[in-house]
């Protein structure tokens, strides 16, 4: 007797680790930031919708919408619609390590940040 297991829902369950609220600490190219990222389901099992609320070291607040693409333990976060005029949308390339996402940023102007860490709340 042979059993074949379909994995159609399996990838979805694994990618759902991104759902929820994350706190963040970011050493950007020009400044340091703290804030949160909220993630909700998106278009399919690998694409999710997010909202980043950032606080710059001087207290300036801004927000960005985001699309998250999950491939295994790697997550690409592409931001758009920044709330501050002239702000270049950010992109984050992070890897899952338990309840953390760690990596770096690279905005659309090519400025690379040193490090970003998201912690699941």
Average pLDDT figure: 90
What string, H for helix and E for strand, traces the elements in order? HEEEEEEEE
Which regions have little confidence, pLDDT < 50, spanning 5+ residues? 1-11
Q: What's the total count of β strands?
A: 8
Largest sheet: 8 strands, antiparallel, barrel
Distinct helical segment count:
1
Q: Give me the CATH fold name.
A: Lipocalin
SS content category? mainly beta
Task: Note the gap between the termini.
Answer: 45 Å
CATH architecture: Beta Barrel
Shape: globular
Strand numbers in spatial order across the main sheet: 1-2-3-4-5-6-7-8
Q: How many separate domains?
A: 1
Percent helix, as a range, is under 10%
Report the top-level CATH class.
Mainly Beta
Radius of gyration computed on alpha carbons: 16 Å
CATH superfamily caption: Quinohemoprotein amine dehydrogenase alpha subunit, domain 2
Strand content: over 45%
Describe the overall structure.
The protein is mainly β. The protein has a single domain (about 20-120), classed as Quinohemoprotein amine dehydrogenase alpha subunit, domain 2 (Lipocalin, Beta Barrel). Helix content is about 5%, strand content about 55%. It is built from one helix and eight strands; from the N terminus they run αββββββββ. It has one helix at about 10-15; strands spanning about 20-25, 30-45, 45-55, 60-70, 75-80, 90-95, 100-105, 115-120. Strands 1-2-3-4-5-6-7-8 form an eight-stranded antiparallel β-barrel. β4 (about 60-70) and β5 form a beta hairpin. The chain is globular, with a radius of gyration of 16 Å. The protein starts with 9 loop residues before the first helix and ends with a strand. The model is unreliable at about 1-10 (pLDDT under 50).
